[in-house]
Write a structure and sequence with these properties.
With 419 residues, the chain is an alpha+beta fold. 49% of the residues lie in helices and 11% in strands. The structure holds 5-S-methyl-5-thio-alpha-D-ribofuranose and magnesium ion. Residues 44-46, 68, 178-179, 182, 236, 369-370 line the site of 5-S-methyl-5-thio-alpha-D-ribofuranose.
């Protein structure tokens, strides 16, 4: 039986998307007169994505389907995720100008967002797999997370506004449940939607499921993910959610947005840089052995963290206006050393959160439902299994020996020591 959807909703096609956009005067004039070209390019797990080009301009249309695209109708999923995606852009947009796509229109009946078409950008993960470098991407994503998280936190906004946001995004439960189950639980239990490189990783998958301290660490972080309302987070900030050129970086796809721990976004991006690092030997060709790309990827770890940390502390020092650390408590010069020490303590705690969530986000991509193209596209099975095993080794260190990691350099040293 087909899934039921609300009246007014129909999933768009290459032809009906033209009629949908033609009924929107602003979009019509943005595109110019018809004919327009349409290409459906969605390669993520959930949605339809259309690129529409006209003589005067271009737009991107992202529409929710009533099910998980990667699984089909057997896995229904509420359409409302597009509401949360556009609501997230609405909350953070003014603070991350130039670092996210611009939203032009949201249609609540069609659960469709019409936004800026990013061109000639490509998905960062795809670019890294192809062997490219993006000189400013890690800095830009660090800057993005600092801005989006600071301006939605209790450091920046009064509690009334913050908790209105918490109440709004608390309804994004279907997607929060996906993360709770797929990221924090499934890789550590027998689950039919799990998969891994088999038989090569069968033993490692069994080890993960039998490792009590690892499961305790995963559950501790899962509890933090569910119970912290530190800031409005993107919720799925991997390299597939970043579009890049050599000079421009945009963070997209925030449909998993929720109030949660800032370290979750930091850990997602870090994990994906590190997974790219471990995957590179598997993508080596006669023309490009990737030996230079690996050290470059590790250099991005401190770049990313420093960009985040410096911007977060600067915003906190200059623009704090929330109910956490009320600024009139620290207005006298004699208060400043204690305030600055507290900022450094907060950064150390965020760093520790980042490490833990990076470990979790790595393990889910190797033993869970949704895998990374970084590993999936390695044709040689032995090379793929080796890359994945190396990534799991670092993830286990992150989760079981977190005290080894207090600076970005500690991460670099550990990654180099593994492969
Ligand atoms: C069922 S959705 C699987 C994954 O796709 C998204 O990109 C998220 O990472 C989610 O966990
Ligand atoms: Mg996504």
């Amino acid at each position: 039986m087909p899934l039921s959807t609300p009246p007014g909703y129909r999933s768009l096609s290459d032809t009906s998307v033209v009629d949908f956009l033609a009924a929107l005067p602003d979009i019509r004039s943005r595109l110019g007169s018809q004919p327009w070209t349409v290409r459906e390019v969605g390669d993520g797990n959930l949605n339809l994505v259309f690129l529409v080009n006209g003589p005067a301009g271009a737009v991107c249309v992202k529409q929710s389907l009533p099910y998980v695209r990667a699984a089909g109708e057997s896995w229904p999923l509420p359409l409302e995720r597009s509401y949360f995606e556009q609501a997230y852009y609405h909350h953070v947009g003014e603070h991350v100008k130039g670092l996210a796509p611009e939203v032009y229109h949201y249609d609540p009946a069609m659960f469709a967002i019409v936004m800026e078409q990013l061109s000639p950008h490509i998905i960062m993960r795809r670019g890294l797999i192809a062997g490219n470098r993006y000189p400013d991407a890690a800095r830009a994503v660090g800057e993005y997370i600092a801005r989006a998280s600071f301006f939605t936190s209790d450091l920046a906004v009064p509690l009334d506004k913050k908790f209105d946001g918490v109440a709004d995004f608390a309804r994004n439960q279907a997607l929060i449940r996906i993360t709770a189950e797929l990221v924090f639980a499934d890789p550590y239990r027998v689950m039919d939607r799990n998969r891994w490189t088999s038989p090569e990783l069968d033993g490692l998958a069994a080890d993960v499921r039998a490792d009590g301290p690892l499961k305790a660490a995963a559950s501790r972080l899962g509890h933090k993910f569910l119970s912290s309302t530190e800031a409005l987070i993107h919720g799925d900030l991997h390299t597939g959610s970043v579009m890049v050129t050599q000079t421009d970086t945009r963070v997209m796809d925030p449909e998993f947005a929720m109030y949660g721990p800032i370290g979750f976004d930091l850990g997602a991006f870090l994990a994906n840089i590190l997974m790219s690092y471990f995957s590179q030997p598997g993508h080596a060709t006669a023309d490009n052995d990737r030996r230079d790309l690996q050290p470059w990827l590790l250099e991005q770890v401190p770049v990313f963290w420093q960009a985040f940390a410096e911007r977060f502390v600067q915003l906190w020092s200059d623009l704090s206006n929330g109910d956490a650390y009320p600024k009139n408590l620290f207005s006298a010069p004699s208060d400043w050393p204690a305030f600055e020490a507290e900022q450094q303590r907060t950064l150390a705690r965020l760093f520790a959160d980042m490490i833990g969530f990076a470990g979790i986000k790595t393990i889910r991509r190797i033993f869970g439902f949704a895998h990374n193209a970084d590993f999936e596209l390695i044709e040689d099975r032995a090379a793929r299994a080796k890359a994945e095993t190396n990534a799991v080794r670092l993830a286990r260190l992150f989760l079981l020996e977190p005290e080894r990691f207090t600076t970005p350099e500690d991460i670099v040293v550990a990654a180099k020591g593994i492969g």
